Recover the amino acids of this structure.
């Protein structure tokens, strides 16, 4: 590929993304970010490191329903193998140079920065930041990588949807059951200190739109709580209690999240969400604490039957 053709491709891609943003009424910078994350996934899927990362996080919503429900500015992985900062920096620098079909995006290997995630609300891990260039537009890319979690049932091979019809990433991704289990564990672990309103929203969306087998979901909850050394709650956790959803500060945080989130679907109130999640999460949890098999089925929107 000569330099002129590369510049023409990049300009064309940028124009198509701008048109797409206008058609959808979405922020162009968010579309750029999604494109950058998508093409990073493709480079990963073409590399020798493909099997060392399992896709998780908010980007899964695009896979499950071709829309994100809420915009995300980063990609999340469960990682395997070397978890050192130096090792991950070397991997992501190498990914920047993976030879792929021209998608207009140039990832800057010299921009790769790696640091430990020190946010107390996160379950450890490493954060990777880098930048890409698309016809002069700077594309910010962030990847958060956790280690050591259980995945129930096992991760599945997926084809990730693309914005412009480029070659699609093929890699492994989290099942919905483990997404639910990890977000639920965070609610229990953080309790009244929880300010991660996106987790409440994500759980609400998942429980409204998808069905679940009680045996599989309860096993995912058991395995995640065990791996993260978190006791299962016998009754409603404080993170879903009336004390939580009636708290003025929590409602301020929730309303700010709704206002700023550019959400596809908006629930009515934090109280509605917590009460709904209680009906979704507590029955399988109680079965586990009583050492019973939970054979119920969840239909989208509930209830268990």
């Amino acid at each position: 590929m000569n330099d002129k053709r590369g510049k023409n491709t990049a300009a064309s891609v940028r124009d198509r993304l701008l048109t797409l943003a206008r058609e959808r009424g979405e922020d162009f910078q968010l579309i750029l970010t999604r494109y950058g994350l998508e093409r990073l996934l493709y480079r990963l899927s073409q590399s020798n490191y493909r099997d060392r990362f399992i896709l998780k996080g908010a980007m899964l919503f695009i896979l499950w329903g071709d829309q994100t429900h809420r915009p995300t500015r980063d990609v999340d992985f469960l990682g395997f193998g070397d978890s050192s900062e130096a090792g991950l920096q070397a991997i992501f620098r190498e990914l920047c140079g993976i030879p792929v079909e021209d998608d207009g995006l140039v990832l800057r290997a010299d921009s790769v920065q790696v640091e430990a995630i020190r946010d107390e609300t996160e379950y450890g891990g490493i954060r990777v930041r880098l930048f890409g260039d698309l016809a002069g537009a700077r594309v910010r890319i962030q990847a958060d990588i956790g280690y050591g979690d259980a995945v129930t049932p096992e991760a599945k091979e997926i084809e990730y949807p693309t914005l412009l019809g480029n070659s699609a990433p093929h890699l492994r991704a989290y099942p919905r059951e483990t997404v639910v289990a990890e977000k639920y564990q965070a609610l229990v672990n953080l309790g009244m200190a929880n300010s991660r309103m996106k987790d409440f929203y994500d759980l609400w969306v998942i429980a409204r739109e998808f069905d679940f087998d009680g045996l599989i979901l309860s096993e995912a909850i058991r395995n995640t709580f065990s791996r993260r050394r978190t006791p299962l709650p016998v009754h409603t956790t404080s993170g879903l209690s009336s004390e939580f959803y009636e708290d003025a500060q929590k409602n301020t945080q929730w309303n700010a999240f709704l206002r700023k989130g550019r959400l596809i679907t908006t629930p009515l109130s934090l109280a509605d969400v917590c009460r709904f999640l209680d009906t979704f999460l507590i029955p399988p949890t109680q079965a586990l604490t009583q050492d019973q098999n939970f054979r119920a089925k969840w239909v989208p929107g509930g209830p268990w039957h």
Summary: Residues 177-298 form one domain.
